[in-house]
Amino acid sequence: SSASAHQPTQEKPAKTFDDAASESSDDDDIDALIDELQSNPGVDGSESEDDGPVAAGEARLVPEELLQTDPSYGLTSDEVLKRRKKYGLNQMAENNESLIIKFIMFFVGPIQFVMEAAAILAAGLSDWVDFGVICGLLMLNAGVGFIQEFQAGSIVEELKKTLANTAVVIRDGQLVEIPANEVVPGDILQLEDGTIIPTDGRIVTEECFLQIDQSAITGESLAVDKHYGDQAFSSSTVKRGEGFMVVTATGDNTFVGRAAALVNKASGGQGHFTEVLNGIGIILLVLVIITLLVVWTACFYRTNGIVRILRYTLGITIIGVPVGLPAVVTTTMAVGAAYLAKKQAIVQKLSAIESLAGVEILCSDKTGTLTKNKLSLHEPYT
């Protein structure tokens, strides 16, 4: 049964992916990526009952005996509850960052730290004008950035709601329509024209013929023929035919879910422009500290009062570090995001504009580049 549990390796839609890591054999690179995404840990069955977490890109193995569902009767209600408790809902995990933390993060950074220190120093010296200006710049930077990203996130959430679909499964011998996120491994799912497949599964209807659009996975517009025993993948669409399939993977364990987990794992970090700004801020901060040490030493030997020394410190800090830079950069990017919104482009994170602004050459893909591993360039349009 272990070999049967590893059935997804029979169908390899991801052979259309090309990581181009090796110059000697591009086909070997594609096969390596396919093996990484389609391989299931615990093929020998020893890990089939492991309820612990799995690494990004890995699948949680469903024992083959749980997939031997009677296609004419489906799962019972009690069995559905057990499997939902064990495998969870059929949805990909999302990192929901706290709004408070997201807002506070706009006050984090080398330049922001200097501005905050200067604000505290200005308050201590009762210099309320400088204190108000610095706090105003900090709040402007945080407010503009937070509002822009919050609005973009709200729009995306509304779009996700419109994508919520249903699935028709056999439960207790009856065809029932349920929310797609309630499908569990072992369910018998009905496929017909127009069905958007919500999970990975294996065709169990004998002598059936299906044509399934896998362009969401491969980018190839041509429908793929499917027969008894073949794999169907989440986010694919049935273009022709009718049949049933047994659900083999849900949520993050689907092919698409594992690919998304690998992408999310590799897409962390700051944008290049943000790193450059932080680097500039650190350099200026070091120069300001060195200057302050020189000034403090000179004032010590001249026996200047502590208040005068602190005023020198505040002045040098404000002059030496571009306190208005974060607000200017954030406001500029927010204006760019508003312009893109008019072009029907949603900017979820302002740092994405920084990265896109640094692009010098943009190559757009066409059908065949991924699926055939061939790239051709004709007359570029600029």
TrEMBL record:
It is found in: Endomembrane system. Residues 20-34 have a biased composition (Acidic residues). Residues 1-54 are annotated as: Disordered. Signal peptide: none annotated. The chain crosses the membrane at residues 99-122, 128-147, 276-296, 316-341. GO terms for biological process: inorganic cation transmembrane transport. It is a multi-pass membrane protein. InterPro entries: ATPase_P-typ_cation-transptr_N, ATPase_P-typ_P_site, ATPase_P-typ_TM_dom_sf, ATPase_P-typ_transduc_dom_A_sf, ATPase_P-type_domA, HAD_sf, P_typ_ATPase. This is Plasma membrane H+-ATPase.
